[in-house]
Amino acid sequence: MGIIKTKYGYCYSKDTRFYEYEDFEDCEFKPENSKRLKNLYIHLISTENLIKSQHSAQKGKKQTNELKKFNENIIENMQKLYNSLEDESYQPGGYRIKIVTEPKEREIMIAPFYPDRIVHHCIINVMKKTWTKVFINTTYACIKGRGIHKCVDDVTKALNNDFRGTKYCLKMDVKKFYDNIDHACLKRIIRYRIADEQFLRLLDKIIDSNGLEKGLPIGNYTSQYLANLYLAYFDHWVKEELGVRYYFRYMDDMVILHHDKDQLHYYLDMIGLYLGAELKLTIKKDWQIFDVDERSIDFVGFKMNHYNILLRKSILKRFYKKYVRVKKENNIRDLDTFKVHFPSEYGWIIKCSEPHKNYILKNCINNEKRKQLIIGVTLRETS
Fold this sequence. Notes:
Blueprint: E1 3-6, E2 9-12, H1 41-44, H2 47-58, H3 65-72, H4 74-86, E3 96-100, E4 106-110, H5 113-134, H6 147-161, E5 168-173, H7 183-190, H8 197-207, H9 221-230, H10 232-241, E6 246-250, E7 253-258, H11 261-278, E8 288-291, H12 292-295, E9 297-299, E10 302-304, E11 309-311, H13 313-327, H14 335-341, H15 343-349, H16 354-365, H17 370-374, H18 379-382
Antiparallel strand pairs: 1-2, 3-4, 5-7, 5-8, 6-7, 9-10, 10-11
């Protein structure tokens, strides 16, 4: 098991077979002496949690016929929900399928608002703090106070503070991550911290609601937390057992920095073993090991190296298309009006290096032609 060097570069030796690996004892990470939580279910079905959950599930949503129908008989509906949870007769409803194409084509499974989405919020209200404590500091997706911008800050801090130790990058992600989350593995991971059988039975119903033995519905409020939890103990193994210093994960996208390419190949091999053996996951074939300054790290919407932070080209193009559309109806004469019309985009732009940031803002505020905006937005021109 390992890698060999050929005239074409490094590659796996012929005896590397992740899917045949059966020695689970070698690399599984289990939390030692972790206190398992009991008496959770009583908090889940409490009146306070049910009221808070239905409010959170409605917040920011349009008043559809489904919501109107629920609110017209809200007291009766909430009583029925309480009864179904108390006697454990609750069963998840059917999903409505929606296809989205941005940023890539995905199948979204939308659960009914009542009772399913309310139940999802009930679960997360009870478990959010506990599960968040399991996550390492350098995982960012779906965690309050972190997110993309914190991820960019931490990666660039590592690049700036340790030039030599971050010379090379291993970038990889998991093949069809949400679709391949194994239900049996996820249930085992959940039971590391939860001992309440009623609560576990409810979670099992949510996990199995797609009718398959693997996969979490993209669209469920619970799915983002469960997916993050699925890799949480893997994160600890990478940091504490494998000894990786510079490791960053945003959901299933992972970046590791090191001064030695051979060491990165070793990490790739071991990570592939762990994911395949313990979590039934596979690394995508398009993994890369490269010099950070020759190629830049394309991660969470930015391209980063030791000298620059740029917006990813696809994100920049989408912004320019929106800019042209908005500019036709609005006079974007200064920075203040730019912020009003593009508050989210401005937050992304100010994360970039000064030359790149100034280049974008100057062209937009001065109302330059779109062709001038797109031409030459490269590392060479902004460095």
